[in-house]
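Entry 14. Ran structure prediction on the chain below.
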Amino acid sequence: MATHFLNGIALPGGMLWVDEFTWAAAQRSVERSITGAQIIDVAPKVAGRPITLQGAQDQGWIRRATLLAVRALADAPDGRYPLELASGEAFTVMFAPEDAIEAQPISRPELPADTHPYVATLRLITV
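Output, C-alpha cells:
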C-alpha cells in the first residue's frame, strides 16, 4: 500500500483524506443592495484548505512511535511542514488549531509498545 509523508515521517496510506471535497477554491458571499439587486462577491482562497487524514478500525493504523513523532510536530509553535500524499499531491501544511490529533489504541495494553497500533485522525490545514 502507498504511503503518505509528513515532514519525512511515513504515515499509512490507508489513512484517508476524508474532507478532500468539502472545500471550495473560491469564497463567495451573496448580499442584496438597497435596490433589491443581488450582489455576489467572489475571491480565491489562497490557504486554509483542511486535510484530515483518518484511519479506521480496519485500515490506516498508525504505530505508537510514529504517533509520538507526529505529536512532536504538532506541539511545535508555528510548525509548517511538507506533506506528500500517497496520490503524489504535495502541500505545505500546519496542524489545525483545535483537536489536531485524535488517537485510540486498537487494544488497551497497560504499557503499549512503540509498535502498538492506533486508529488516528490528523487534522491539518494548508498554508
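The helical segments are 64-75. Will compare against last week's run tomorrow.
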